[in-house]
Design goal:
- This protein has 259 residues and is an alpha/beta fold.
- The chain has 9 helices and 4 strands, in the order αβαβαβαβααααα.
- It has a 4-stranded parallel beta sheet with strand order 2-1-3-4, sandwiched between helices.
- Helix 2 crosses helix 6, helix 2 crosses helix 8 and helix 6 packs across helix 8.
- The protein starts with 12 loop residues before the first helix and ends with a helix.
Length: 259
């Protein structure tokens, strides 16, 4: 599949028809957000990451398309910070159902859901098995938040940054990603250290993000580099593509072996 044609939203219906006819059967759907990411990163950080990851994963697979990233997401715990837009878990799950129903109807046999915002993981994990039971397509949720943060920290290390983040939000890892993908969106004159060390996610969700961080940052974004951002994206892409291949093989081993 041509690397310039993996973005579903940029294809024509005839492009999609041709891709399906030529064996493209996998769609990657990132699930992002529009929410605060400190004073230095844009509100679309998680959506930007979703756009980049879904496209990279589709290209790595070679026989997949990247659907438009779903946004906004479940960001109620960020609402103390202006600009954040949140929707209910029910609304997000309905949107995911609509995406999967549409892709299934067109003939996609494998749908990979890739949440890039922590608040979306629970809804994605809840709705994916329900959808899978109703559709011909297999629906696979790449929604292990602990794994994602471990991969991001691995990417920091491999990118030469000797700094780890137990909970990731607007710190070194996410700032590195934006530096790698759209450095013009990083306000380097506004880099501020946030709350470092372990953070109670239960308190974060129940009391709001502002209860654990005044500036909306966890960690130290000053540690970020574009090289580390590229490394993070490469690490996640490789791991997620491996997961998707394994899922496809488990669902239809004979077809995968033929390909």
């Amino acid at each position: 599949m041509d690397t310039e044609s993996v973005l579903l939203e940029e294809m024509t219906w005839r492009d999609v028809e041709a891709a399906l006819d030529n064996g493209t059967r996998t769609a990657v759907v990132a699930v992002g957000s529009i929410e605060q990411h400190g004073p230095h990163l844009p509100l679309k950080m998680d959506t930007l990451a979703g756009d980049e990851l879904s496209a990279r994963i589709a290209r790595e697979l070679g026989d997949a398309v990247a659907a438009p990233t779903i946004r906004p997401g479940c960001s109620g715990h960020h609402m103390a910070f202006p600009g954040t837009i949140t929707i209910s878990p029910e609304t997000l799950m309905d949107t995911i159902r609509g995406y999967c129903d549409s892709l299934n109807e067109h003939g996609f046999e494998h749908i990979a859901l890739v949440p890039t915002h922590g608040g979306n993981f629970a809804p994605v994990n809840t709705v994916a098995p329900e959808i899978a039971r109703k559709l011909d397509a297999s629906v696979h949720a790449l929604a292990d938040l602990g794994e994602l943060m471990a991969l991001m920290n691995e990417g920091l290390r491999e990118g030469g940054v000797d700094y780890q983040e137990p909970v990731i939000h607007a710190g070194a890892a996410e700032t590195a990603i934006v530096l790698a993908v759209a450095k013009e969106l990083v306000r380097t004159d506004e880099l501020e250290v946030g709350t470092e060390g372990d953070v109670s996610t239960a308190r974060l969700l129940s009391e709001g993000f502002d209860a654990v961080s005044e500036n909306g940052v966890l960690g130290d974004p000053r540690e970020a580099t574009a090289e580390a951002g590229e490394s993070i994206l490469s690490v996640i892409t490789a791991a997620y593509a491996t997961h998707i291949r394994a899922e496809r093989e488990a669902v239809c081993p004979s077809r995968m072996q033929e390909n």
